[in-house]
Amino acid sequence: MSKFLEVRNLNVSFPTEDGMVRASNGVTYSVGLGETLAIVGESGSGKSVSNLAVMGLHNPTRTEISGEAILNLKSGSVDVISADTETVRKLRGKEMAMIFQDPMSALHPFFSIGDQIAEAWHLYNKGSKADGKNKALEMLELVGIPDAAKRINDFPHQFSGGMRQRAMIAMALVNNPSLLIADEPTTALDVTVQSQILSLLKELQIKFNMAIILITHDLGVVAEFADRICVMYGGRIVEDGTVEDIFYQPKHPYTLGLLNSVPRITAGTSHRLKAIPGQPPSLINLPKGCSFAPRCEYTSKVAGGKCSTEVPTLDVKNAGHLSRCFLSTESLNNLVKDKA
Ligand SMILES: Nc1ncnc2c1ncn2[C@@H]1O[C@H](COP(=O)(O)OP(=O)(O)O)[C@@H](O)[C@H]1O
Ligand SMILES: [Mg+2]
User: Fold this and answer.
1) If DSSP states are collapsed to H, E and C, what string results for 129-196?
2) Ligand 1-lining residues (CB < 6 angstroms)
């Protein structure tokens, strides 16, 4: 069965004075209804750029985009990359919606929360002003705003950070989209509110059978939440697998590095966190070989110095588990064991 969204060989580049920024480089992923795909990677790895392309939110005159992003709708399939602007605009807010780290990027400061949610509903539904208001109230209650009937007339600045995030979710979901892209939705929130928002998203996902893409730089938040994980580095996907694959059988040195920098409580022993030394690559002048090679501790173990001359392909290492590394699973496992 095909997934709801299928992104294939997506390339997004920005021509700049300094050269071409290759922010999304042959990216392929998919997500089904009721499923959560997490896209994880350090800041600047191309996570947002890739998903903004799916939403049709790049400026066409300043962006070069190729590849496919197919939405398999009940009415048929649409490739949002090649579709015209008007078609994509109609899908946005109806079949697919996006929420961001900063709710104020989606909420207008001068209109009440209720009016903004109602307006998003009126875009796709015929109904009176009262119908719109009722829908806004229903959504605010659904996302857990206490005293929603009173708070509906509040302005965004009267809401706390966590409540604003809930209001943005209410607005994104008002037309019952099949795909929700959540771009670092909890990064700005404290840990307690963060887990409340993620639980809310999970609850709403089950209720509406939504496909969710959760973009985050924090592997720690995805373990409970996601079904699959794509790890991005330097504009490319370097590893793709189930949550179990990524957490228990990582097959890329970058993923290993990310896992080592996540706090974990394992059998009562605390382990020291290690950041990955070095810096992510510039997306203007990507290294000739593997983008991670300059930071990788295992390059000397690959014959012929291939890591610095050839880009490894994203290969299937196990059923449904892909990695972009020249090392075999056995070699990598042995190297990791030797180090421990
Ligand atoms: N409009 C743009 N013009 C030029 N470069 C951009 C533009 N938008 C994003 N970039 C660059 O693309 C790269 C990937 O960005 P992004 O997808 O936002 O990363 P992240 O993984 O943190 O979401 C970054 O190096 C960023 O500077
Ligand atoms: Mg981002």
Assistant:
1) HHHHHHHHHHHHHHCCCCCHHHHCCCCHHHCCHHHHHHHHHHHHHCCCCCEEEEECCCCCCCHHHHHH
2) 14, 16, 21, 23, 41, 43-49, 283
Q: How far apart are CA 46 and CA 48, in angstroms?
A: 6
Ion ligand 2: protein residues whose beta carbon lies under 5 Å: 48
Give the model's pLDDT for residue 287: 86
Residue 265: CB atoms within 10 A of its CB come to 8
Nearest-ligand number for the alpha carbon of 232: 1
> In angstroms, what CA-CA distances link 206 with 34, 201, 226, 239, 320?
6, 9, 13, 27, 24
Q: Ligand 1 atom 9: the closest Cα is on which residue?
A: 49
pLDDT tens figures, 187-230: 889 888 999 999 999 999 999 999 999 999 888 889 989 999 99
The domain locations on the chain are 1-95+177-340, 109-175
Give the mean pLDDT of 306-317. Answer: 97
Q: Does 101 score more than 50 pLDDT?
A: yes
Closest ligand to C-alpha of residue 65 is 1
Is 212 in a helix, a strand, or coil?
A: strand
Residue nearest to atom 4 of ligand 1 (CA): 14
Which segments within 92-135 are labelled E, that is strand? 96-99
Distance 49 CA to ligand 2 centre (A): 7
Architecture in CATH of 1-95+177-340: 3-Layer(aba) Sandwich (3.40)
Query: How far from the centroid of its chain's Cα atoms is residue 4's Cα?
Result: 15
Choose the residue to mutate in 11, 13, 14, 181 for probing ligand 1, maximizing ligand atoms within 8 Å of C-beta.
Answer: 14
Atom 10 of ligand 1 has which residue's CA nearest to it? 23
| Number of CB atoms found within 10 A of residue 16's CB | 10
pTM check: above 0.90: yes
CB count, 10 Å around CB of 212? 23
